[in-house]
Amino acid sequence: MNKPVIENSSLSASLLNLGDIYSINNSFEFASIPVKAGYIIGIHKFNLILKAGVNTDLFIRNEITSENNSIDSYVNKPSDSESPFRKVHVNGLVGNEINYAVNQNYSFSLETNYRFALNTLTKNEDIYSKPDAYGIGMVFRYHFN
Questions:
Q1: Which is more confident, 14 or 48?
Q2: What is the distance of C-alpha 142 from the center of its chain?
Q3: Which of 22, 52, 109, 116 is the most exposed place for a label (fewest CB within 10 A)?
Q4: Over 80: is that where the pLDDT of 3 sits?
Q5: Does residue 85 contact residue 78 with C-beta atoms inside 8 Å?
Q6: To which H or E segment does residue 58 belong?
Q7: Which residues are CB-contacts of 24 (< 8 A; sequence separation ≥ 6)?
Q8: Burial 35-56, CB ≥16 within 10 A → b, else e
């Protein structure tokens, strides 16, 4: 295997650089409009809230940049004709919340949720994207009476 093609030629190796490695940032911006409904199971100051709903995401822009400016920045907006992204993207939401009433006006909650795409994020059939996400959050509320 290491035998030279021509008997009297020397065998030498060379390194081929196929390209540099780039680190890029891909940032998506959306305005979200959630609509949720819930069922409350309460025991004195503690409540368990089961929730479901939909979330409409309005695409604002997508920006791709490199950390060391090795590639040109690219910005994609919904008005761009070549944009592969839909202007409106719809997600389903399911979740639960454990709520503790501190007093009549204030409460503290721990919330978990799962968000899943109901339609694709992209217009083009060649690029298929149906993202999903899990979330956890804490909420401090003021209740108007």
A1: 48
A2: 29
A3: 22
A4: no
A5: yes
A6: strand 46-66
A7: 64, 65, 66, 67, 71
A8: eeeeeeeeeeeebebebebebe
